[in-house]
Amino acid sequence: KNQVEQSPQSLIILEGKNCTLQCNYTVSPFSNLRWYKQDTGRGPVSLTIMTFSENTKSNGRYTATLDADTKQSSLHITASQLSDSASYICVVRPLNTDKLIFGTGTRLQVFP
Amino acid sequence: DAGVIQSPRHEVTEMGQEVTLRCKPISGHDYLFWYRQTMMRGLELLIYFNNNVPIDDSGMPEDRFSAKMPNASFSTLKIQPSEPRDSAVYFCASSYRTSGVGDTQYFGPGTRLTVL
Fold first, then answer.
1. Which residues are CB-neighbours of A98 under 8 A, at least 6 positions away?
2. What is the pLDDT of residues A10-19, one digit of tens each?
3. Rounded to an integer, what distance in angstroms lies between the CA atom of residue B55 and that of residue B5?
4. Closest approach of chain A CAs to the CA of B110, in angstroms?
5. How many CA atoms lie within 13 A of A35 on its CB side?
6. What whole-number distance in Å separates Cα of residue B10 and Cα of residue B6?
7. Interface residue of B23, B37, B43 to substitute, partner A, most A CBs within 10 Å
8. What is the pLDDT of residue A107?
9. From CA A79, how far away is CA A86, in angstroms rounded?
10. In B, which residues are within 8 Å of A104 by CB distance?
């Protein structure tokens, strides 16, 4: 069964610090992998997208990496801000399907 | 563009009542998705439409759930009768394609449903 697992489930860091969130997937083959950010009480918003042939993609202080050999992706947040407090969801689109496979997310809290 | 619009934002109802959730997708998008999100199961796809036609409803949990898309700018998700286990946040999302890097789904703010 196609799965997307994320770790840690939750994370607390201090403002200004860096952090890395992990995503392991078994979906194969796949079309693309995305990281979504979901603020409390709002819908998810796409942060980055990578195809299977890409290794890294940046969006400001967010950098996503992809290792298709080990089936792992990570999201690195640099110089965290209070506004980074949110859930981050790893999402994989299998090839030849319209359905997305969602991870259960990592809940990040940034404290001053 | 105003983005995907959902109403109501919050709904509290009693078990056995009918609930109707509404969604207006982004203009020009021809794919519309209904999701349910719970703490235990995360985001789950319920049903999706292409050009107002339901393509896959295999995620709809029971016959109590139904969805319609009468035109390109409006969709409803109905639960009748509602049960406490239906309590969740329901999201609507739209996109203009479902393949390639341009397949970003844009989510609405969600409807938080509580069934007592």
1. B31, B48, B55, B56, B98
2. 999 999 999 9
3. 22
4. 6
5. 29
6. 10
7. B43
8. 96
9. 15
10. 41-42
For A82, list phi and psi in degrees, rounded to 5.
-55, -35
Q: Tell which of A49, A89, A98 to mutate to test the B interface (max B CBs under 10 Å).
A: A98
- CA A73, CA A83: separation in Å to the nearest integer? 23
Amino acid at A23: C
Task: Please provide residue A8's backbone torsions phi and psi, each rounded to the nearest 5 degrees.
Answer: -75, 175
Does residue A83 sit in helix, strand or coil? helix
Per-block mean pLDDT, blocks of 10 residues, chain A (112 long): 88 97 92 94 93 92 95 97 97 86 94 96
Which residues 84-103 on chain A approach chain B with CB closer than 8 angstroms? 89, 93, 98-100, 102-103
